[in-house]
Every structure is written in structure tokens, then in C-alpha cells.
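Private note to self, pasted from the team thread so I don't lose it. C-alpha cells:
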């Protein structure tokens, strides 16, 4: 069947205007969503468990009578794990180990140094006390999200990890609970939406207040996270998933077609873009996509994504392809080329870089090791993947010896007086040694 995917050429006079239009994504919720979320968040903040039960029954079509029904016990998590096939459990355990091993390399220790006059300066790195992890629920659940959000928090030293997951119509996903058990989640509540975010941010009689909320969700979850930011920390406000494949034309076109499908099948707003200097290769990938599409169980979603937000971009050469990749600043960037090491140093903006023809983005989603929680919508220009550092905070350490205080006071005093802050200046001057 025909797939109507847009094609642009770098030789077009308005090429970058077309690219800007292609990439444009309005992640800001409309006024109706904001009003609804505000009402939900404020009601949970004011009425706690009562409001949490009320909204859960309404939005997830449940009939919860008491808040105790919303919590999944450790034994229930283990029972769910026992119902999952041994193949999936072993894969979850292997993935968890790989994710843990990778993130252990990110651990930053506290440090300090001493100056000649005895002054000690440094930094104390401390894990957050409690973190909330939001996991999408229902039949389209993502146990990989459990591992990717929980494992770096565990490596960072977070002692208390609270997971929330919606269970619409009471449907509990055993694989998600198995992942939670393997990752070491401390408590699980079957709540979702803006009400779950509010419960984590403000606490209720039953759900403990957390220091930071991480994990993906729909527009109501994203809007609620924006609303409570400042009361708690958040990871990011993520847009639709996206992949940018840069290919020199030498990779099997079926492989590239399926790499593009792998992002398009997430949802209709996901974005799949292919850049190549080889026009005939773009034609080959198109034919592969049209031949393979009927075999896909999520065919309708893939088609809507590719035809709505996908594109093939023809460039003059690989240098131009890399320049364009930096302009796009994609969440996932595949360098499906010979000797990718020669090009990776030229990449400045990307959430994750998949190097070579045998490194599909799908492996990164599950088990490669690096985190799959990545900046979207061009925010890779200034943001990074979720990591251990997101679950730690840093405190500056300053210790002044008498000699060090005297030396620093002589610098601080004139600066303070220059800012007309006399008490600052006097506070420093009191430390100047009298013999000087």
C-alpha cells in the first residue's frame, strides 16, 4: 500500500522553514485541560484520600470504597511476578542488571580540597529522600519505564521509591508489577492521572509526599507535573517520542524501515525522520515500508504517525546530514553509517546516539543500559537523559580557618560595600585578624 510520507530536499529555498514546520509541537495543554487539572490537583491537596478515591473511581471506572484498596502489597507484587512467563522475568532481570551497571558509572562522590591557609572547600552529594515514579497503566503498559526510572534512583541511594500506576477498569498489569518487584520499588499505588501527581506532590493520609516526580504520562499528567513543580522537582515535560535516522545509503532498507516503524508505533504523534544523501536509497526505504506495513499489528498508528509527522530528508552529503541532525536535536539519533566514530564527535545535540548499522534504537528502549528517558522536541540542545544525577542533590562545603576567613574577608568587604550592603561587609570584617 502507498504511504504518503513527506519529502524535502536541502536544495529547497525554504528548506529550514519546512523543517521548522515539521518539528513544531505544541506541548502546552489547552485552557480546558488546565482548568480540569487545576481542580483535580487542588481537591487532592485539600481533601487527600477522599478526593483521590473519588477521582480514581471516576476516571479509571473503579468502585474503590477505601484507600487501602489502592495499594499493592509486596506479596501481591511477588504473586504477579510468579504469573509472568519465566522468559519475560529473566529478560527483566537481565535488563535491570544492565541498566544498574551502566548507571553505577554515573555516581559522583562528594569531594573537597584544602587551601594553604587551612580553608576547606568542597561539595557534598546526597541522594533525595523519597521519589515518586509515574508509570502509564492499563493494557498498553511499559515495564521498561519502571526499570529506567527506578534503577538510577536506587543507584543514587534513594531510600524510598513510591510508584503510581493507573489500573483502568481494575486491570492490573502483572509485567509492570514484576518489573517493580525486580527494581526494588518500596510501595505501589494503583492511581493515575493528575490525581496521582497531586498525591505524590502534596501527600495524603496514605500516599507519602515525595521530593521529586519522574516518569511519562498523558497531557493531564504532564500538566499536573508543571503545576506542582516548585513544590516538588520533576524530571521533564516530555513530548511525543521521536527518531532521526542518518544513513549513508548502505544499510538494508528493511532495517531502516523497521527502525522508523519502531517509533511510529508508539502513538500517532510520534515522529520518524530519515536523512540520507542517497536519493535512490530513500526510494528503497519507501518501498520497504510499503511492503512491510501490512505485517504490523499497530499498522493504523504507524500510518497516522508517518503521514502526519514523518519525513524523508535528502541532503547533498554527510556533512550536511550531520549539520541537520544538530539542528533537529532529536531524542533518538541513529548514525547508520560506516565508521560512525568519525561522525559522532560532530554531533552536539541528541538525547541518545545509536552508532552503526547494528544498533537499532529499540535495543536502547529495553536493555542496552543507558536510560531511555530522553529529552524530546529539540530540548536535547540543553537537556540530558535521566540519570543518577537527577536523584541526587549537591551541597557546597565551606570551612574557613581563622587565617582563611581573614584573607577572604579582605576580598568580600569592598565588594559588599560596593553593593551598599554594610552588614555583609561588617560580618566579613569582624573576621579580619587584628594583627593585620
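Design output:
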Amino acid at each position: 500500500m502507498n504511504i504518503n510520507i513527506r519529502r524535502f530536499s536541502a536544495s529547497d529555498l525554504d528548506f529550514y522553514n519546512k523543517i521548522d514546520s515539521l518539528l513544531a509541537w505544541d506541548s502546552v495543554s489547552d485552557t480546558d485541560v488546565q482548568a480540569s487539572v487545576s481542580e483535580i490537583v487542588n481537591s487532592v491537596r485539600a481533601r487527600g484520600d477522599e478526593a483521590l478515591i473519588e477521582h480514581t473511581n471516576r476516571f479509571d471506572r473503579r468502585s474503590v470504597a477505601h484507600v487501602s484498596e489502592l495499594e499493592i502489597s509486596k506479596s501481591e507484587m511477588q504473586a504477579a511476578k510468579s504469573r509472568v512467563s519465566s522468559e519475560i522475568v529473566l529478560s527483566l532481570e537481565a535488563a535491570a542488571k544492565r541498566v544498574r551497571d551502566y548507571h553505577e558509572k554515573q555516581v559522583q562522590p562528594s569531594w573537597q580540597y584544602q587551601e594553604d591557609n587551612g580553608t576547606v572547600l568542597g561539595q557534598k552529594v546526597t541522594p533525595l529522600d523519597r521519589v515518586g515514579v509515574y508509570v502509564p497503566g492499563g493494557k498498553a503498559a511499559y515495564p521498561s519505564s519502571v526499570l529506567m526510572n527506578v534503577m538510577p534512583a536506587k543507584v543514587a541511594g534513594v531510600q524510598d521509591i513510591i510508584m503510581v500506576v493507573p489500573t483502568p477498569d481494575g486491570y492490573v498489569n502483572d509485567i509492570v508489577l514484576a518489573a517493580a518487584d525486580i527494581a526494588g520499588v518500596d510501595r505501589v499505588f494503583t492511581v493515575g492521572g493528575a490525581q496521582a501527581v497531586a498525591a505524590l506532590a502534596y501527600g495524603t493520609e496514605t500516599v507519602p509526599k515525595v521530593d521529586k516526580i519522574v516518569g511519562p504520562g498523558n497531557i493531564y499528567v504532564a500538566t499536573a507535573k508543571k503545576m506542582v513543580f516548585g513544590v516538588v522537582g520533576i524530571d521533564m515535560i516530555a513530548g511525543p517520542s521521536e527518531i532521526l535516522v542518518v544513513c549513508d545509503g548502505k544499510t538494508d532498507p528493511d532495517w531502516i524501515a523497521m527502525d522508523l516503524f519502531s517509533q511510529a508505533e508508539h502513538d500517532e504523534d510520534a515522529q520518524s525522520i530519515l536523512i540520507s544523501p542517497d536519493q535512490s536509497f530513500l526510494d528503497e526505504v519507501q518501498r520497504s515500508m510499503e511492503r512491510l506495513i501490512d505485517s504490523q499489528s499497530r499498522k493504523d498508528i504507524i500510518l497516522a504517525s508517518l503521514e502526519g509527522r514523518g519525513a524523508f530528508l535528502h541532503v547533498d552529503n554527510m556533512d550536511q546530514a550531520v549539520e541537520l541532525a544538530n539542528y533537529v536535536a532529536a531524542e533518538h539519533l541513529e548514525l547508520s553509517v560506516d565508521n560512525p566514530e568519525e561522525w559522532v564527535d560532530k554531533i552536539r545535540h541528541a538525547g541518545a546516539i545509536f552508532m552503526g548499522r547494528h544498533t537499532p534504537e529499540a535495543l536502547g528502549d529495553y536493555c542496552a543500559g543507558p536510560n531511555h528517558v530522553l529529552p524530546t522536541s529539540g530540548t536535547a540542545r540543553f537537556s540530558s537523559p535521566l540519570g543518577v544525577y537527577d536523584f541526587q542533590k549537591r551541597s557546597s562545603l565551606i570551612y574557613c580557618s581563622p587565617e582563611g576567613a581573614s584573607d577572604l574577608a579582605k576580598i568580600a568587604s569592598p565588594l559588599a560595600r560596593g553593593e551598599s550592603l554594610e552588614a555583609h561587609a561588617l560580618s566579613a570584617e569582624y573576621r579580619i585578624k587584628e594583627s593585620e
